């Protein structure tokens, strides 16, 4: 499992963000990130702007022809332990990925920021 600590979310000018403790650079573009997240010892839940935000925000984004989504605050999943892992753009618009440690952490690998497994 990746030790994610308490990281302040500082989104870029377009509203995108990647949690720096996770090796996102090891995930190929245009691929399902779920298996990678599971390998890191986490489960993930996704929120898309178009079905998470208010109608006003969805309309603002749709009419802007701009990838900026900095005015959207994604809603975390219900339950404890979720952290924001990423906000990124897709073909269908911005998506937020929330992460939570898997239930059975005794068998989850420890992943360093370079994306490789290391000893517990």
What this model shows, in words?
With 120 residues, the protein is α+β, with helices and mostly antiparallel strands. The chain has one domain. The protein is 17% helix and 25% strand. Strands 1-3-4-2 form a four-stranded antiparallel sheet. It has a two-stranded antiparallel sheet with strand order 5-6. Strand 5 (110-111) and strand 6 (117-118) form a beta hairpin. The longest helix is centred in the middle third of the chain and has 10 residues, at 55-64. 18% of the residues are buried.
List keywords for this structure.
25% strand, 120 residues, alpha+beta, two-stranded antiparallel ribbon, 6 strands
Encode the helix/strand succession as letters.
EHEHHEEEE
Q: Spans with pLDDT under 50 lasting ≥5 residues? A: none
- The domain tally reads 1
Structural class call reads: alpha+beta
The fraction of residues assigned to DSSP E strands is: 25-35%
The order of strands across the largest sheet is 1-3-4-2
| Helix count from the secondary structure assignment | 3
Number of strands: 6
Cα(first) to Cα(last) distance is 9 Å
Report the helical percentage. Answer: 10-25%
The overall pLDDT, averaged over residues, is 86
